[in-house]
Amino acid sequence: MASDLDFSPPEVPEPTFLENLLRYGLFLGAIFQLICVLAIIIPVPKSHEAEAEPSEPRSAEVMRKPKATAPSANKRPKKEAKKKR
């Protein structure tokens, strides 16, 4: 009865090149996502040079008037009256 039991490991085929590519691509994608999430969660301190320089352009932006946007050429003008059926 003990001789009937087969304790040898099951035969598993070797992973193909595409399966390996998919596996490692998924690992790289997961690592990239973790880095992106950590970059959002962990604040990065700003340098002192970057804080001093933008003060001048901000005051220049306040002095400028906003440009009026032209209507888009893709939009059709609204019809004045409804069509009668």
Automatic annotation (TrEMBL):
It is a single-pass membrane protein. Residues 48-64 have a biased composition (Basic and acidic residues). Residues 75-85 have a biased composition (Basic residues). Residues 48-85 are annotated as: Disordered. One of its GO terms (cellular component) is membrane. It comes from the Eukaryota. It is found in: Membrane. Its main location: membrane. Belongs to the UPF0239 family. This is Mannosidase beta like. It comes from Muntiacus reevesi (Reeves' muntjac).
